[in-house]
Design a protein that fits this description.
By secondary structure, the chain is an alpha+beta fold. It contains seven helices and eight strands. The strands form two sheets. Strands 7-6-1-3-2-8 form a six-stranded mixed beta sheet. Strands 4-5 form a two-stranded antiparallel sheet. Helix 2 packs parallel to helix 7.
Length: 235
Amino acid sequence: MPLRPDRRRALPLIAALLALPLIARPVPAGEAMTLPPPTADLPPGDGPQTVVLAGGCFWGVQAVYQHTKGVVRAISGYAGGGAESARYDLVSRGNTGHAEAVEVTYDPKQISYGRILQIFFSVAHDPTQLNRQDNDVGTQYRSAIFFRDGEQKRAAQAYIDQLTATKAFARPIVTRLDPLGAFYRAEAYHQDYATLHPNQPYIYFNDRPKIENLKKTFGDVYRSTPVLIGQAQTN
C-alpha cells in the first residue's frame, strides 16, 4: 500500500532503529493517562450501539477498540465528507472534508458509551491537537466525535466540559462534535492493519503503545485477542 509522505520521510531512521538487536531497540513513546469516567452517561438501550470517532490515523484507533471488551466490531473508514471522494488517495490530500474515523459497534450491556469516550480521550489519541496527531498533519487527522443523535452529542459535550473544568489536560480540548452524515468504510488493506503489521515501523512506534496503555489503564476491559473484521491484504 502507498505510504503517506510524512511517514515515508521517517521510515529510513525508524528502519535503522528496528534493525538493531531487539534488546537495543528504544521503547516506544507514550504515557497512559488516567482520566475520570464521565459523570453522565447514556442509558444502555437495546441491542448493539454505534459511535464514530476520529483521532488521527485510523489504524491505531481501530486497534484500541478491537482490544476493548464489549466492542462487537471496529471498522476503519471516513466521515465528514461526501461519497464521491471517500477514497484514501483523495482523503489523504486533506481537502475532501473527511476525517479518518472508526465506527465502533459495542454491546451496551458490557460497555457504556461513556466508557468508550473515556478510552477515546485517555489512550486512543490526543484531543488537544488541532488537525493533526503528532507527525500526521491535516484536517483528515482531526479529533472529532460524529454523533448519531442528540443524546450522543449531549453526553459527549458534557464529558468534554467535565474534563475541561477539572483541567485534565494542560492544553484546551479541541475535539469537534459533528453530526454524522454518513460513514464510508475504508479500503480492505486498511482493516485490521495494526494486528496484521505489528512490526511495521509506524505501528511499532505510534500504535502499539496505545494498546499497551489500554492494557495498563483499562485492564478491566482490555482483551489480549482483538476482535477482527476479516482478513485484509498484507501488502
